[in-house]
Design a protein that fits this description.
The structure is a homodimer.
Chain A lengths: L6 E5 L7 H14 L6 E4 L14 H12 L6 E4 L10 H7 L2 H4 L2 E4 L4 H9 L5 E3 L11 H14 L14 E6 H5 L13 E8 L3 H13 L8 E8 L12 H12 L3 E4 L11 E2 L1 E2 L4
Parallel strand pairs in A: 1-2, 1-3, 3-4, 4-5, 6-7, 7-8, 8-9
Antiparallel strand pairs in A: 5-10, 6-11
């Protein structure tokens, strides 16, 4: 990689990022890597606002492609989740150039829709993992430090502990994956260990989405499911009476998918990196 | 049909029904049809409670099959929506006998998951329409009167006004249909006018579900979409800035599906009957 640190381009295909968070991320990167600080290049689109989104669909897709297709940028980092990445799949896939394939992509939650779409194109540098907006969380520096360790050095310490070079993995937010089922952007996860997590969804919704995901014939070809953390679950009326683990175990049993235990991912500062496909160390 | 009125069996594949509502429905039927009152046979399962559901999956599926397979019952009426019908699809489809095919089925919202599953089996007596639990609504008697007019007489007054014998139709709750996409129970709606409605979902969720539905290649073969009422939409933070009609028009345009205008359906007392497939007058 050229000169000092790697160059990371940041875009926001969903909700907007506060400029103060970008500044915090840049300062953290400089502190962590004094000699070879990663260059965090926040695309101005990150800070736009258009209703629910960080700019309209066309603007967000163009910004994504600006970064993805730039051969001088090593990695595309999703600024944050929210909602809106899925709206860009057709535009983004139509505009990719070969430079985009050689890049690392890191994000989670809503970003899963674009990661999935890129995975259907055979991209090998995709990963689930923390984003700059995690700096808003208590202890968020640890999450962003982990993301930078992955982006800069592929540091093993950043990885979800069951990830290894010998297996295929992928990680998704449950609701986001549910909305990809049956679309052209549903990734082929045959033989993958699928890690799932959720936040702020009632238990009946988690149950319904897992019913949906595990009912899809292609999804039944995963090697197994690991359950990450399902946090901030709003109360159910009446109480659902089952934990997320109970629910995922149930649908694994119904669908014949092996349940493999817990995954160390979630909407929190402990969220780890999970590569899509096989772990690539270079 | 034998003797006085038709026999309607009521089951609750999702949430439980209060017994008082069943009594109100029976009294209304007797008042409306003094000489040939439809016999409303509420299966005892309607009043069970198991966490979120009106009994566990096995109990609810068995009750559904009790009614569906009973040759002395003319129609199966869903007691209400809620959540849980989709959990029963495999069990129900595995247990149907020929008597089930000759029946009318009426329900909406969560019931759409079972209506869809039965439609994949070629059932011709399925319809979206009001349920006994609509009696809890203000003006709910009008909704239940409409449902009974459809069940007892196929009265045209009960129908959604654009329904005719010359076209194919279907109606779904948006979120329920989204969760059927890519499953074995996704109905083939080629050439159908698809009517959609929603309740109590934030606008970004409606947008995401419509993106999902219209991205599915098979769904793009519908004749067009009509939008019913989307009610009780919780506020969005930040405001989504678009109405449900704007959102559905957008996804129709993106997907090439004709947008055909409004549909007179929704989670309210004005909800009309929409047959699945071709209107059957006998």
């Amino acid at each position: 990689m050229r000169g000092g640190g790697i160059r990371i381009g940041i875009v926001a295909p969903a909700s907007r990022l506060e400029p103060a968070i970008a500044e915090k991320a840049i300062a953290l990167a400089r502190m962590l890597y004094p000699d070879r600080a990663p260059v965090l290049q926040f695309h101005p689109q990150c800070f736009l606002s258009s209703g629910h989104f960080a700019g309209d669909d066309e603007t967000r897709a163009r910004a994504f492609l600006d970064v993805a297709n730039d051969p001088t940028i090593d990695a595309l980092w999703f600024a944050r989740g929210g909602y809106g990445s899925g709206r860009l799949t057709e535009r983004v896939l139509a505009g990719l150039t070969p430079a985009a394939e050689r890049k690392t992509y890191l994000g989670y939650s809503d970003a899963g829709a674009l990661l999935a779409a890129l995975y259907t194109r055979g991209f090998t540098g995709l990963a689930h993992g923390p984003v700059p907006a995690d700096l808003r969380r208590e202890g968020g520096e640890a999450a962003v430090t982990r993301a930078l360790a992955y982006l800069a050095d592929r540091s093993a310490i950043a990885l979800e502990p069951t990830v290894s070079a010998s297996g295929l993995t992928a990680a998704f937010n449950i609701t986001v994956l549910s909305h990809l089922i049956g679309t052209p952007w549903q990734p082929d996860l045959s033989g993958h260990v699928l890690m799932l997590e959720e936040v702020s969804e009632q238990m009946y919704r988690i149950d319904r989405a897992l019913w949906h995901i595990t009912a899809n014939p292609a999804m039944r070809r995963v090697a197994g499911i690991r359950l990450g953390r399902c946090s901030a679950i709003p109360p159910n009326e009446p109480d659902f009476g089952q934990s997320a683990e109970h629910v995922v175990r149930h649908w694994c049993e119904v669908s014949g998918i092996p349940y493999l235990g817990a995954a160390d991912i979630g909407h929190d500062s402990d969220n780890k990196v999970v590569p899509f496909g096989r772990l690539r160390l270079a």
